[in-house]
Predict the structure.
Amino acid sequence: MRSTNFRQDINGLRAWAVVLVVLFHFGIPGFSGGFAGVDVFFVISGYLMTGIILSGLDKGTFSLWRFYEARARRILPALLCMCLVLLAIGWKSLITSEYQQLATHVLSAVLFVSNAKFWLESGYFDAASHEKWLLHTWSLSVEWQFYLILPLVLMIVWRLASRRGAIWAIMSLLALSLMLSIYCSVRWPSSAYFMLHTRAWEMLAGGIVWWCCVYRGWALSHSKAKAAEVSGFILIIFGATLLDARHAWPGYLAVIPVVGAMLVLLANCQQSAFTSTPIAQWLGSRSYSIYLWHWPVCVLLYYTHWYYRTEWVLVGIALALVLGELSFRLVEEPSRRLLQGKGGLNPIYSYATALAVIVVSVLGIRLYLPEGRIPQQVEAMAREAANINPYRRECGGFKGDSETELCSLGGDTAKVILIGDSHADAVMTAMLGALPSDDAALLSRTMGGCPTILGARRIGAAEQKCQNFNRWLKQTGDNIDGDLPMVIVNRTSIYAMGPNELHRWEEHGKPLVYFSARYDEVEAEFLQEFREGVVSTLCDFAQERQVYVVRPIPEMNVDVPKAMTRSELLWNKRQDVGVDVEDYHARHAFTWSVQDEAAKRCGVKILDPLPYLCRNGFCAASKQGRPLYFDANHLSEFGNQALIPMFKEIFSLSTLVR
C-alpha cells in the first residue's frame, strides 16, 4: 500500500457516507438508517489521523502544532463561512428567540462543543431537531475533540512504549469506548449519540485498519480485496436501509457500518465501480461542504413546510449539491491556498480574526437586538407560543398515590372537577373563568399524553405512569362529593388514529395506546376495544356524578405561531392556518360516535367547542392576526377564552340537575 498516494477508494467512500446522510435527512424512503453515514465518516477520519500521527512519530517529524493547524485549515474556513451566512440570513427571517438560539449554536459550533450543547438540549431524532440550523455540527465537534486528544495520548504512549505501546493503547481505548457505547446507548441514549467517549471507538477502528495495512503490511489478493469491498458495502447499505431511529445508537448495531467501512479501507481497491466513478469522486471531494450545507437546506424546507412535498425535497437535495460545489470552489480550495505556504496568509491571525468576529457577533446578538429588526406584530404572534396555562406546573403531572392531590383553583367552594390530558390543561383557565361566583373553586389534575381510559396502556415510556394516574383519578373521584360535576377533556383521536401533525408523518395511522394486544395500524378489533374502553370509563365515572365530555378541540397540522410568523417573515403575507369543518369531522368521526354512545348508555353530557371556535365551515387557528393556539393543537390562554361560554353551560340550573 502506498499510503502517501491519493486514495480513490477513501474519496469514494466519503461520497457514500455523505449521500446516505443526505438521503436520511431529507426523508427519502428506504434510508431510515442513513445516519450511519456519520459512522463511516468517523472510521475514515480515524484512519487518516492515525496515519498522520504515527507516521510522523515513527519518522521523528510529528509536530503537534502543525497537526492542529492542518485540521483547522481543513475544517474552519467552510464552517465559519456557513455560520456567518446563516447569521446574515437569520437577521431578517428569524424571530428573536430563534435568532438568539442560532447565535448560541454558532458559538458552540465554532468552539467545537456543539455536541455537548445539543445533548443538553434534547435528542437528535426529536421534532425540535429540524429547527436547529447547526445540529449537524455535533459530528465536527466530536472529530475535533478526537483530534485534540488522540495525538497527545499517542505521543505519551510512544515516548513510554514506542510502536507496540501505541497499538495496544489504540485497541484498549477502542474496547473501552465500545463497551461504553453499548451500555450508554441503552441507559443514556442522547449522551451516547452525541459524546466523544461513546464515539471514539469508531475512529479508533479506522486507526486499527491503518496499523494493519501500513505497519503490518497487510495486502489482500485481488479476489480477497474485491470480496472485502463488496462485503463492506453490503454491511454499510444494510445499516443505512434496515436500521432506523428506534434502535439504540451507536451501540452494538453501529458495529455493522463501522466494520463495513473498515473492510472497504482494508480492500484498498483503487479502480472500483463502487468508489472510482466520476460521480463518486466528485461527491467525495465535496463531501465536507455538502455535509455542511445540506442540513440548513433541510431546516429551510421544514420552516416552509415544503419538507413533506416530494418535488421540493428533490429541489432541496439539488440545492445542497450546488451549495456544496460553491463552498468547495469559493471557500475550501481558496482557503487552503491562502493559508498554506510562505506567501499565504498567517493561519493563526486569520483564524483568530474570524473567530473574534463570530464571538463578538454572537455576544451582540445575545445581549442586544435592536427594535425594528422584524415587525412587532410578528413578535407578538411568536409570543403566543409562550402564552400557556400558568397553573400547568402546579396542576399537571402525577407524583404518586401518597403525594398527589387534586389542585384547587379559585375560591373556597369547589364547584367542578376537571381531568384529562394536556388538552384539559390547555382549557383550565377557561373553566376557571366560567365559575359561577367569586368563591367558587375548580378542582383539577391533568397528565399530558395520558388518555382518560381505564385499562388503556400508553405505548412508550409513560405506559405505567399513565395507568397509575388513571387508577388514582378513579380512586380520588370516588372519594369526592358526588354533587360536583366532572369535565373530561382529552385529545382522544390521537390515541386511536395517531397524530395528524406534518412533522409526525411517520406516526400517522398508528395508535398510541393498546389494550389486550398492540396494533401497528388502526384495525377493527382495536377500535372496538378502544370504544369499549372509553365508554366504560366515562360510565364508570358517571356512576358517582354528572360527567361532561368535551368534543375534540380542532387540531391543526402545523405549529400555529411558527407557521404564521414564518409566513410573515419569509413571504411577507399572513397565512390563514385552519381546518375545514368537513375535514374536522372526517378526523374525529370515530371519537364523536364513541362519545355519543357514552351519552346514550349512561347519561354523559357532551360539550361541543365547534360553535365557539369555527365559523362558516372553517375552524380558524387565529383571530385578528393573533394565534389561538400555542402549538399545533393546544389552545393558548388567548384562544381558550372562546370556550368560557361553553363551560358556563355546566353551571346553569338545567344542566346541574341529574
Remarks:
- The chain has two domains: 8-370, 391-556+582-614+634-656.
- The radius of gyration is 29 Å.
